[in-house]
Amino acid sequence: MNAAGKLGFVAATFGKWWGTDPIARKQADVDVVAADIDRSHMLAGECTWRNSFDETEIIRLLERRAAIFTGNAKVTYALFTKLKVSDGTARKAKDRKDFLLMDAERIFSI
User: Fold this and answer.
1) Beta strand pairing status for 99-103 and 74-81?
2) pLDDT of residue 77
3) In b/e form, how buried is each residue of 43-60, taking b as 16+ CB within 10 angstroms?
4) Can you give the residue ranges of every domain in the chain?
5) How far is the CA of 6 from the CAs of 3, 25, 65, in angstroms?
6) CATH classification of 13-109 is 3.40.1350.10, yes or no?
7) What is the reported pLDDT for 38?
8) How far apart are CA 53 and CA 49, in angstroms?
9) Which of 1, 3, 40, 57 has its CA 20 to 30 A from that of 10?
């Protein structure tokens, strides 16, 4: 998606983040982090490869954890999943311009 210009910015760095979540007061991580050259745009993503999980909770945690390290950057959130998310989560993500849903079928078709 980055090479095709479909992220909304050109990511120049890729990695992950781990550190302390000051609200939970424990170690936390974000699985996928990408940023443009001046870190004014970032992508923060969570990979969840289970058949069943609380989608709302994973998104809430991702947004909270990303806020720790993204500063004033414009953030795009991404949820990478094994299976398609529920219709409710898909509708919510579609209404947001800052959220990508990527299930295995879509990932492997790109």
Assistant:
1) parallel
2) 97
3) bbbbebeeeeeebeebbe
4) 13-109
5) 8, 35, 24
6) yes
7) 96
8) 9
9) 57
